[in-house]
Design brief:
There is one protein chain. By secondary structure, this protein is an alpha+beta fold. Helices cover 27% and strands 24% of the residues. It contains 16 helices and 36 strands. It is elongated.
Length: 797
């Protein structure tokens, strides 16, 4: 069925009216002509003439009224213009309505609205445990002993002889986070009517309890567990799920317990400021590629495997910067400078690879030998790599934080003397690349400049280079994968999010995330004041609490503050004795805002390293994921999005936001956010190009009005003269005036003529016209004809 706009419907109606206005008078006068007789009253002839002469029949029959022979030119001109104007009016009547259209538009002014909770229908809601006010918990340790966390009254006695330690608790350890910490790290948002979440508005999506006899007097304590839900990576939009705004385009999550303004059936839009976690990833191209061929079968193997694997120099070796860029210039507070870290990692990866494969030399101060005195490479030069039988690793995306692993041979054992390793490059050299890039080690204390950074190599999903089908691993087909070095961190920030609700059901499916943009600040003083716990405890065993704080806590003890748009979270990306990854088989303390954002990155690489992991992050079993990673592997900039999306995938399943417009868990109306909404209103609009004929008609009408006014002012036209001309063209009056000039004329009033002459019968037969009230003797010419018979010859007064 064809969908019609209001303008099209109006145009169709107008066209029907035009047809009806032409059809009805034409057919009506056709019927009228059949009802007329040769002998009718003068009034009958007047009325009939009016309709017959104004119809289309004179035009169709080419009768006297359309002939211009003998007609004065002004009359001819006007008589031609009037039908054209009628035609223009018909066009205007049809075309003008086409410009009409309906639209639901935003109201010009924002209004206050009442919000109500909306539930998610996806697994992000159904998998979530009930929010039952479980306390936030953590424990601190030192040398394997539970020790008091900041602001707690617990006591631990540690006895050591320098070789070993012995711990004893005086009582029990209370794992609950002290109220003073809740007060500090909610102070920046708690007492303001804001939609920005604080640290304690973020909870595990699934919670449970855990038993430890040394904690909480041996009673169960609140803990968090993790299960991966939907694959966010395959989406390509920003959407609302239970407790979160998930951006699957850029890779980030915002915290919001979803509500919507009720009572707006056409829809409504509004903007809120939300707390976001955002992965910050920088990747640098090493300008080397892995090139190989596919083998689909042999005498001993029927699977798909890689053959002729080579590491190809695309400029990373031959054009290497011979001045080592390894001086650490990244000591800024809350400024990890990820691009510099990634560049250093890419440079060092190439440098140690060249030395391992004897493409270039290492420096030796004792022998006064400078590094890179020779470089045995050129653009496009290939270096053979070893592969294992049935090795399908290179068929998918490669993710590793083992910087020596990309050489596909052991840098420590060097069992195969493929390159000889003359400069004795060991695994420690490549481990040093990772440590240099990441900076913060697990034994670092909780300080504001100890930012969590995790570094890795990405081997892109292979791209087919022989012109064949790009999605099919044909036998003997040729493929190439780029190699990138990346540095990643996580920051907390505030963003302005614009929502739209379509006015229907209270379900998150009907809530649209229209835009996510950086929050704008008038000056630095308007930026959030971020606070982080400052403690001598090591990051390996201590999870610092952070958040937006009130300026009153700027110089408070055990807290570091920085005023900035974002806060980079603390932590170490290096391996630790404590398991921080998000693993379904592991239970975490109930402190998700410290564990989940960094743990999500660690989970990415543990999923790759663990062959038994249920998480397919490289597209090994998912063609959809393989295709998406292939497209994002084409450049270093887009490759960084891979890590952002994977991080979003894990962390969205782990946590949930509990604060919305109605306060925490929709239970604090007195702290409801100050949010104004802009509803949609129904309006009828017009596309002005369809009004061109109407404007032309208006111009013609204006011109006619001017000519008429001039004619009136000059006395050429007036009402009396119009009345006289109408009488002169009235057929009945013309006949009575012609036949009885002594009693009928054009100046007599309509009432007098109608009273005295309207009933006179006039015979307009083929042979003669005749006035019929008082028959008179007639003189009829021999063989009369209408063209030659004169009134003076056939009628005597």
């Amino acid at each position: 069925m064809v969908d019609l706009t209001i303008g099209q419907v109006a145009a169709i109606i107008a066209f029907g009216i035009v047809i009806a206005r032409a059809w009805c008078p034409t057919i009506g006068t056709f019927i009228l002509a059949g009802q007329l007789r040769d002998r009718e009253t003068a009034a009958t002839w007047t009325v009939a003439a009016k309709h017959l002469q104004s119809s289309y029949w004179p035009l169709v029959l080419r009768s006297d009224a359309i002939r211009d022979h003998g007609v004065r030119k002004p009359v001819v001109l006007i008589s031609l213009l009037l039908p054209l104007l009628s035609f223009l009016i018909a066009i205007v009547g049809v075309v003008t309505p086409l410009g009409l259209y309906e639209s639901n538009e935003l109201r010009s002014k924002a209004v206050k609205a009442d919000f109500e909770y909306m539930r998610d229908s996806s697994t992000f809601y159904t998998s979530m445990t009930t929010r039952d006010d479980k306390p936030f918990t953590r424990v601190c340790s030192l040398d394997g002993c539970y020790v008091p966390c900041p602001y707690t009254s617990d006591v631990t006695v540690i006895e050591t002889d320098g070789l070993s330690s012995n711990c004893s608790l005086l009582g029990t350890i209370d794992p609950a986070v002290p109220d003073i910490l809740r007060e500090i790290y909610t102070s920046g948002t708690r007492y303001e009517r804001t939609t920005i979440s604080n640290y304690f508005d973020i909870e595990w999506r699934q919670t449970t309890t855990q038993y430890d006899r040394q904690l909480n007097n041996g009673t169960p304590i609140a803990s968090g567990i993790y299960r991966r839900l939907e694959t966010i990576s395959l989406l390509d939009d920003a959407r609302a799920v239970e407790g979160l705004v998930v951006d699957a385009r850029e890779g980030r999550i915002g915290f919001r317990n979803h509500t919507f303004p009720s009572g707006y059936p056409l829809g409504v839009t509004w903007t809120e400021d939300l707390l976001f976690w955002e992965p910050d990833v920088e990747c640098v191209d090493t300008n080397t590629t892995f090139d190989f061929e596919i083998t689909t079968g042999s005498q001993t193997d029927a699977g798909v495997s890689v053959s002729k694997l080579r590491l190809t120099d695309r400029g990373g070796f031959v054009n290497i910067n011979t001045t080592a860029p390894l001086d650490d210039q990244r000591n800024g507070i809350n400024q990890p400078d990820l691009n510099t870290r990634a560049y250093q990692a890419a440079w060092a990866t190439n440098a140690f690879s060249m030395m391992f494969m004897n493409i270039s030399n290492a420096g030796d101060q004792d022998k006064n030998v400078e590094p890179f005195e020779y470089i045995n490479s050129k653009i496009g030069k290939e270096f053979k790599m070893l592969t294992l039988d049935n090795d399908a690793t290179y068929l998918t995306l490669g993710l590793t934080n083992d910087f020596g692993g990309h050489l596909a041979t052991s840098a420590t054992s060097n069992a195969d003397n493929l390159y000889g390793n003359p400069w004795n490059i060991t695994k420690d050299h490549f481990t040093g690349i990772r440590d240099l890039c990441q900076g913060t080690q697990p034994d670092a204390s909780a300080k504001l400049n100890h930012t969590f950074v995790i570094c890795n190599l990405i081997r892109g999903t292979p791209q087919r280079v022989d012109g064949g089908p790009e999605n099919v691993f044909d036998d003997k087909s040729k493929w190439s994968s780029s190699l990138y070095a990346c540095a990643s961190a996580v920051k907390a920030t505030v963003k302005s999010v614009t929502f739209f609700h379509n006015g229907t059901d209270a379900r998150s499916d009907n809530l649209v995330v229209k835009e996510i943009k950086e929050k704008e600040y008038a000056s630095e003083d308007d930026m959030p004041l971020w606070g982080v716990e400052d403690s001598p405890l090591e990051l390996e065993v201590f999870q610092p609490i952070w958040g937006i704080v009130d300026p009153a806590y700027d110089k408070f003890q055990n807290i570091s503050t920085v005023r900035a748009k974002s806060l980079y979270l603390l932590g170490s990306g290096s391996s630790s004795q404590v398991r921080w990854e998000l693993d379904p088989g592991f239970v975490h303390r109930n402190l998700p805002a410290s564990i989940a954002p960094t743990g999500a990155f660690i989970t990415i690489f543990s999923s790759v390293a663990n062959s038994l992991s249920p998480n397919d992050v490289v597209g090994k079993t998912s063609m959809s994921l393989w295709l998406k990673w292939r497209d994002l592997s084409r450049s270093a900039d887009s490759a960084s999005t891979i890590l952002k999306l994977l991080w979003t995938d894990f962390v969205a399943s782990a946590v949930v936001g509990t604060k919305g417009v109605l306060g925490a868990r929709n239970a604090q109306p007195e702290h409801a956010g100050d949010v104004s909404v802009v509803p949609l209103v129904h309006k009828i609009r017009y596309r002005w190009r369809y009004g061109i004929p109407a404007f032309l008609l208006l111009a013609c009408m204006s011109l006619i009005a001017v000519v008429a006014a001039l004619s009136l002012l000059t006395g050429r036209s007036n009402i009396e003269k119009m009345r006289y001309r109408v009488n002169q063209t009235s057929l009945g009056r013309v006949l009575t005036t012609l036949f009885e000039p002594q009693s009928s004329n054009f100046a007599m009033s309509t009432a007098d003529w109608s009273k005295n002459k309207a009933e006179k019968h006039v015979d307009l037969g083929k042979n003669r016209p005749m006035a019929g009230l008082e028959p008179q003797p007639q003189i009829i010419a021999e063989d009369p004809s209408p063209e030659k018979t004169k009134a003076s010859e056939i009628y005597k007064g």
